[in-house]
Amino acid sequence: MRDWVADIMDELDKKLMAVLEKNCRITYQELSRRYGVSANAIRRRVMNLEETGEISKYIVALSIAMTGSSQLFGFLTGDGSRDEVEMIDEMGSHQNIIASAAYSNGTYAFVGNYDTTQEMHDISSYLRRIKGVLSAEIHPTIIPSGQGMNLTPLHLRILKVLIEEPRLPIVEIAEKSGLTSRRVRRLLGQLEESGAVQFRALLELGADTSIPYIARIRWDERSTNYESMIEWLKQKYPLSSWENFVSAIEPVLFALLAGENLTEVNETTREIRRHPHVESVITTTCTYHKFFRNIRHEKLLELIRNV
Predict the structure, then answer these.
(1) Where in the chain is the domain with CATH 1.10.10.10?
(2) Phi/psi at 242 (nearest 5 deg)?
(3) CATH 3.30.70.60 placement within the chain
(4) Which residues contact 302 (CB under 8 A, 6 or more apart)?
(5) Please, are residues 138 and 248 in contact by the beta-carbon 8 Å criterion?
(6) Beta bridge partners of 71
(7) Rounded to two decimals, what is the model's pTM?
């Protein structure tokens, strides 16, 4: 019985992480109604995820549409001469790299933001020059841009409070901003409905017992598209599929997943490979990863400072 209960709660943990990664402003009461568990139990689960490091932190950032920036995803192949942590820190020292990770077989993955093609070229050139790098593969990606809106001084007033504590309750936001709770609720509703500002939990997959990995999926673009592939992954692996990066230059999808053990990782890889529209799958497991600056977060800070 105890093992069964533990399994159920592990599943709930994954569901909570998936929801908070998309919107960390959702309340314990809302989560309680959604999953049929008391708000106090939800709160304890979230606090435990924070303590174990599965939830690294919460962040507020502008959407892609608000900044006009684009995103890239790529891999470096190393020669094995460098320490992984040292290598990742050097990758992340470039101002446009927002996250990087060490994977099996001397592979390093990274995510970056850029505003112009010149910036993308500069990122590529910098990464290729890093000592110990044999080759680099860089893909501009297709991502939802969200919507834009005019952020008024009142919007920025409550965002100034939330930038430090993104999950702060409305009553406390009202106290710190000097606005009424009713006005805060209305302004937050406008921000969340527009998608102009993102409230997200940053996840440290693998901080506890799970194994994070990337599945490089090439599909047959004559028979399907990336939207269908992503939807299939979300439905097939709702608790292990976390994020997807779609190449804008070839029919390749980089799916970030997490498995409980290597057996599950291998089984999932085989299942994806059997998909009728998948041509090939290559899986690499993560050994270490790190988040760096978030340019869209920094641009929001700049807006707040200028008010």
Answers:
(1) 2-52
(2) -110, -45
(3) 211-287
(4) none
(5) no
(6) 113
(7) 0.81
